[in-house]
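Troubleshooting: if your tokenizer reports a length mismatch, compare your output against this known-good record of 194 residues.
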Amino acid sequence: MDVDNSQLQPLIDQIDSLVSRLSNKTLSPSREYIKKRGKRQFICWTDGACSGNPGPGGWAFVITDRDGNVILERSGFSEASTSNRMEMTAIIEALSSIPPTSRVHIKTDSRLIANTYNKGWRRNKNLDLWRRFDEAVRRHNSVIIEWVKGHNKIELNERADHLATTAIKDRAGITHSYGQTVSSQQVRTEQIHE
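Known-good structure output:
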């Protein structure tokens, strides 16, 4: 198909103008970070915990870039939950904290979630969370879920476990990003955005 470049020039000029305006805006640390990283690929270590099952629960995730640099940690607390619900919540929260259309590699010690996602196991319980899970997955270009053995001295899996159990003990979660720690209530709507 032959295209006359003079017909495309107004569109090219509009795109150039938009790119110029966007590049002159001051970028937040997370936007700047993602801009520098090029292809958006993230690794998420997730974990959920419960004191009693059911009982008070905690969830947590640690997100790294493809080079293994930790860029965001977050945890949260639930007054009454189960281990499976906290494991699922950790993954949902991680996926929701990553810019849409990213490539995401989730590492979880939940065989139930990994096998349900990878092997099509039947979803019998927590259907409300499975709906949120599916919505979070659809936001991204690619989501891989890998099972890793828990409590096996894998540093970032242990870190996610520590954050989840600490959320139960403290009855509150945290968000840690770029060297600043604040309560999850202060940054509830803050996420890594492009």
